[in-house]
Amino acid sequence: MKIATYNINGINGRIENLLGWLAEAKPDVVCLQELKTEDHKFPERVLLDKRYHAIWQGQKSWNGIAILSRFGDIQETRRGLDGDPDDTHSRYIEAYINGIVIGCLYLPNGNPFPGPKFDYKLKWIKRLIAHAKKLQGFGLPFALIGDYNIMPTELDTYKPEKYVENALFRPEARKLWRTLLKLGLTDAIRYLYPQERVYTFWDYLRNAFGRNAGLRLDHFLLDDTLKNRLLSAGVDKDVRGWEHSSDHAPVWIELADQTQKT
Question: How many domains does the chain have?
Fold first, then answer.
């Protein structure tokens, strides 16, 4: 089973890029972020023509998440996180697909730091932690997948000193990331590549992609059941170099069909 995440940065404006990558990579499930479109403008029919069913929560101009699946109709289990009834941002959607609970998320950027946007980011992560604890109580395999807007370690940025005051790298956010891991979740990419610099985002400015001045922002957090099924993972970096590309590249993992012996 191949699961991917891709911050598409505007699904309708980059639909050809998305379709090209789907045809090439053939993921079974995809978590998308930054749809930047209202619900009624989501390209459901185009994706169905390619045999991808979808659930989504759009938002005009900003945010928006979706889950695509080649396993047929998707059983949606949740949209949004508990803990803030006034939060209208489209940032979390969840489904039960092929025996796995998949949470697709777009965590707040939090810049500028300090300020209310950073405060909102920290509160949102705490709500995600609370939800992860609930998921653990259900006894089902689960993964929390998407654009976390967090660089967990210095290996996850090409220039750590540049980001000391950036919300993506602030110790407050990284501490909450570690709290998620302490629940028993595993960062799939770092688990397989413990010492390598792996990037998933390259800014449009200053030839960042050409210089490989990247950041790792897109993550898979897996419970123990899925960690034991993890076979491989990678970044489709070449997609970032396509014309009119998102500033993120697709990231993916492959899971064995059954739990591997440890």
Answer: 1
Identify whether 163 is a catalytic site residue.
no
Residue 45: which domain range? 2-255
Residue 260 has pLDDT above 90, yes or no: no
260 within domain boundaries = no
pLDDT digits (tens, 9 = 90+) for 105-162: 999 999 999 999 999 999 999 999 999 999 999 999 999 999 999 999 999 999 999 9
Q: What is the pLDDT of residue 146?
A: 98
Report the C-alpha gap between 59 and 131 in whole angstroms: 22
52 carries an active-site annotation: no
205 within domain boundaries: yes
* Residues 6+ positions from 50 with CB-CB distance below 8 Å: 19, 22, 23
Domain CATH number, residue 127: 3.60.10.10
Distance CA 139, CA 93 (A): 19
Q: Binding site: which residues?
A: 7, 34, 147, 149, 247-248
Q: Which residues contact 140 (CB under 8 A, 6 or more apart)?
A: 96, 99, 100, 101
The number of angstroms, rounded, from the C-alpha of 209 to the middle of its chain's C-alpha atoms is: 20
Catalytic residue status for 248 = yes
Q: Which of 6, 106, 148, 199 is catalytic?
A: 106
Query: Is residue 72 domain-resident?
Result: yes
Structure tokens at 96: 């039960």
Residues of each annotated binding site for Mg(2+): 7, 34, 147, 149, 247-248
Inside any domain, residue 160: yes
What is the pTM for the complete model shown? 0.97
